[in-house]
From TrEMBL, chain A:
It comes from Myotis lucifugus (Little brown bat). It holds the Pfam family COMM_domain. InterPro entries: COMM, Commd2. This is COMM domain containing 2. Residues 123-190 form the COMM domain.
UniProtKB/TrEMBL annotation, chain B:
PANTHER family: COMM DOMAIN-CONTAINING PROTEIN 3. InterPro entries: COMM (IPR017920), COMMD3 (IPR037355). GO terms for biological process: sodium ion transport. Pfam families: COMM_domain, COMM_HN. It comes from the Eukaryota. Belongs to the COMM domain-containing protein 3 family. This is COMM domain-containing protein 3. Residues 124-193 form the COMM domain.
């Protein structure tokens, strides 16, 4: 699958061959950093002054690079397809190699970042537990009531959400049994066939 | 066992054969247990023809007193000798003491379950459901190809009678971690309750 680059995008990327490869490498580093932590416009101004161009030009160049990397990573295009897609830009052999390396080096991480953009349910982080025995309450003395107190840590949209819950021994065993069945399910023939056929 | 004067008076009235003959006593006693333990019970428990001759105010007073005493005895886990002693002090005759103790013994388990279920506690997990899916792509990421689980815990809030659910997603390693920890808890519980 080839990338379909718009005219505007090609325009923005046209800045790259105008600077030397160490600058392109630096832009690449900035692009990935922006994907990790968000854009920082001050960087554009600093770079623009050093290169003696407008900060807009720098911004477009970096953004063009970001988009190139994210689109390629999203589609998980092959090396060959990436090279062919970039070929239409008419860059030098050296620049093409650099861009390919940038893609291959950062693809995995970019895909991880992109996966965080999916519709988000709270996701499991960790769990702590504690055994308790209730001995008495206001309405009944002399009890022996075992229970398990659970602290469930969930992540959602980057925030940690903690729920404190309780359960009795019988339900705990039931939970373990049910969830073990869930894990076993992936090993069944049905699931294995599905996994094999969707590639 | 601390009972208010009103309760004590009402209870002592029950001992008096002049106010309550044998039959009426038994009926009132059963009505008291029924009011406490039968979820469907209402004021009609006292609507028995053999209780009609008694002044309704007295009937209600003694019914309340009996129910209050039963709850207090249940709460304190009173044994037969404690019950007998108190009933003797209230001037109950032998026959009525035996009757009370028998009725109490018959209903003791239900009473303790009822009392044990009253009170605040943390949200209580009652059940779990899970869903296994195979993720193929999102609009941000194609060619994903990985399994994911969606787990929902059914939770009961004892005081607000609400049933919120807690849902979360996890991958295989995370579910293994979760199950592993729950298994540890379960094993520890087994070991602890063997003593």
């Amino acid at each position: 699958m080839l990338l379909d680059l718009s005219e505007e995008h090609k325009d923005h990327l046209a800045f790259l061959p105008r600077v030397n490869s160490s600058v392109v490498a630096e832009f690449g580093r900035i692009a990935v950093e922006f994907l990790r932590r968000g854009a920082n416009p001050k960087i554009y101004e600093g770079a623009a002054r050093k290169l003696n161009v407008s900060s807009d030009t720098v911004q477009h160049g970096v953004e063009g690079l970001i988009y190139l990397l994210t689109e390629s990573s999203k589609l998980m295009i092959s090396e060959l397809d990436f090279q062919d897609s970039v070929f239409v830009l008419g860059f030098s052999e050296e620049l093409n190699k650099l861009l390919l390396q940038l893609y291959l080096d950062n693809r995995k991480e970019i895909r991880t970042i992109l996966s965080e953009l999916a519709p988000d349910l709270p996701s499991y982080h960790s769990l702590e537990w504690r055994l308790d025995v209730q001995l008495a309450s206001r309405s009944l003395r002399q009890q022996i009531k075992p229970s398990v107190t659970i602290k469930l840590h969930l992540n959602q949209n980057g925030d940690r959400n903690t729920k404190v819950l309780q359960t009795d021994p019988a339900t705990l065993m039931h939970l373990v049994q049910q969830l073990e069945q869930a894990l076993e399910e992936m090993k069944t023939n049905h699931c294995r066939r599905v996994v094999r056929s969707i590639k | 066992m601390e009972l208010s004067e009103s309760v004590q008076k009402g209870f002592q009235r029950l001992a008096d054969p002049g106010s309550f003959d044998s039959n009426a006593f038994t009926l009132l006693l059963r009505a008291a247990f029924q009011s406490l333990l039968d979820a469907q019970a209402d004021e009609a428990v006292l609507d028995h023809p053999d209780l009609k001759h008694i002044d309704p105010v007295v009937l209600k007073h003694c019914h309340t007193a009996a129910a209050t005493y039963i709850l207090e005895a249940g709460k304190q886990r009173a044994d037969k000798s404690t019950l007998s002693t108190y009933l003797e002090d209230c001037k109950f005759d032998r026959e009525r003491i035996e009757l009370f103790c028998t009725e109490y013994q018959n209903n003791k388990d239900s009473l303790e379950i009822l009392l044990g279920s009253i009170g605040r506690s943390l949200p209580h997990i009652t059940d779990v459901s899970w869903r296994l899916e195979y993720q193929i792509k999102t609009n941000q990421l194609h060619k994903m190809y990985r399994p994911a689980y969606l787990v929902t815990l059914n939770v009961e809030n004892t005081d607000s009678q609400s049933y919120p659910e807690i849902s979360f997603s996890c991958n295989m390693e995370q579910l293994q971690d979760l199950v592993g920890k729950l298994k540890d808890a379960s094993k520890s519980l087994e070991r602890a309750t063997q003593f």
